[in-house]
Amino acid sequence: MKRPVTPTLRMRPSAVGAALSLALLGACSTQSPQQTAIPYQPADGVAASIGVVQARDLLVVSAKKDAPGLVSGSVVNTGTDAVTVSFLTRSDSEAGAGQGVPVQLKAGEQKRLEAVQLAKVPNAPGDLTYVVMQTGAGQTLVNVPVLAPTGYYATLTPTAAPTTTTSTATASGTTTAAG
After folding, report:
1. Do residues 86 and 103 make contact, with C-beta atoms less than 8 angstroms apart?
2. Which domains can be identified in the chain, with CATH numbers?
3. What angle do CA 70, 75, 77 make, to 5 degrees?
4. N or C: which end of the chain has fewer CB within 10 A?
5. Mean pLDDT throughout 85-89?
6. Which stretch of DSSP H or E encloses residue 11?
């Protein structure tokens, strides 16, 4: 005598197939690390810290190699006292070219960097360049990306590199020459 086919008998192969599929798909996660547990920087720039100053999303915007550039990003003073932070290119720092443009931070203050100009960026957009970040606690060398002033960064255009001006006194008056 032949047994009648019931809905329960028809569902058994489907249930077994579904359970097997779930087990196989679930096994994939045992071989892959959990992505949210891996730290990364969800920004165009990089992070750096020195003493109580933390910098985030640091990058340089410049139109071409050896042209002026602007440092973009934000800095935070996590300390209880005011602090000054400044930025220079690596070559300017090695040449003893000064302290760079100072950015004053009160205790607990965060500032967006918009007016920190570098006179000459040694690398072209799409490359990386070294920037020295310095505070009273010392300095750190940060390898930051150089981006072209397009898209989101189109409004970040540095002014022309400053020229030196000399004055000489003459019998007829003062003559000024740009050099």
Report:
1. yes
2. 46-150 (2.60.40.1890)
3. 150
4. N
5. 92
6. helix 7-31
